[in-house]
Amino acid sequence: MLKVEHIVKYYGTHLAVDDLSFEVQDGEIFGLLGENGAGKTTTFRIIMGLLDATSGTVTLDGKKIDYSMTDKIGFVTEERSLLTKMTVKEQMLFYGRLKGMTEEKILQELDHWLERFQITDYKNRKIKELSKGNQQKIQFISAVINHPKLLILDEPFTGLDPINVQMFKEAIWDLQKEGASIIFSSHQMEHIELFCEKLAILVHGKAILEGYLSDIKKEYRKKNILLRGDVDLDEIKKIKGVEAITQKGEDYEIKISEEAVQKKVFQAVRKYDITKFVVEEASLNEIFIAKVGDFNGQ
Predict the structure, then answer these.
(1) Which of 155, 163, 254, 266 could tie 78 with a disulfide, CB 3.0–4.6 Å?
(2) 0.90 cut: is pTM over it?
(3) Cα separation, 290 vs 284, whole angstroms
(4) Which domains does the chain have, with CATH numbers?
């Protein structure tokens, strides 16, 4: 289990991380969200022991993370961090040895991952000769070749097409089943919703929202109604609590201020020929925009 407790980090007088605490259990995927400059990268570096926190502690399975623990950590960065003049095989032998693996085990794991990602022909190709998507696959393999206890994924799907995104998703789920603690960061909120049970949203290094995604959605009062039918939109717009109506394909999406408003909308449209009336929780993307906007507007 990863435990981050009251982390504070100053760069001179600039407060980059402000009293941040969270836990990631074994086999759990935790989402760390925030705008650019929110403090995510600094947090990752502190967790991996690359930066010292001004105050606070980080432990993995009850032990302080230092050089002796780095073999248990994998990190997929948003930017490419490969040695492009090396071949794929040379790259993996280099990284694997740094993680304390034998050459035999490195090559065994490499063959497994190359086959899984359908790039076996690239084993002896130089990194610089690969496409961005295939470079991302190699970067992922370098992070997980030692089956890390803690895996940090910062925008892991960058440069991937939908088929390869699905390959990555299945690989991440398998690592979760092995018991890895995983921190997942992405600006694509649908990926966070798919993977993460728990999350934290950072603004200026401070967690403004943290907890289980299901609880966050439940506590966020605003809902969406998906409505299909020939209705009087002007009549619906006059209902107190209806904030906006937009057309999405054959449906109208009606944003309401709280769940109770759905009854008023239903009463207004029940006299029409309605083929669809579905009340949905707000998306994580909507919640993120609202919460970050509210905090920045204070």
Answers:
(1) 155
(2) no
(3) 10
(4) 2-217 (3.40.50.300), 221-281 (3.30.70.600)
